[in-house]
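Reopening this ticket.

The earlier resolution said the output was attached, but the attachment link was broken on my side. Pasting everything inline this time so it's all in one place.
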Amino acid sequence: MATILLAEDEAVLRMLIGDTLEDEGYELDIACDGEEALQKIGQNDYDLIILDYMMPKLTGYDVLTQVKQMPEKQAAKILILSAKSQHTEQEKMRAAGADDFMPKPFSPSDLVRKVEEMLA
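Inline output:
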């Protein structure tokens, strides 16, 4: 099964997403902020990286742009989660290299569908 990094600073959302993905059989690694996410990305290989857009220390955008500069990490798909769902924000993320964007709030079943689609 695929290995996923979830970087989300909100504890309740982190738990909800984490439990949902683990129940689906995914191997999950968790980061509470952008700095921790970048550290874990440097140490591990992930099939999918899920980044909250607004996190402390480094934003999801900051992490995304740094990961895209790491040639050895290009195989990982990147999904951005954000309450900032304006078209301009989505285009900014895609231009920086995000594979997809999911606006908050979302249902757990929608997230599972998105993850399955991205890993297919």
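Reporter confirms the inline version is readable. The helical segments are 11-23, 34-43, 60-67, 87-96, 108-119. Strands lie at 3-7, 27-31, 48-52, 77-82, 100-103.
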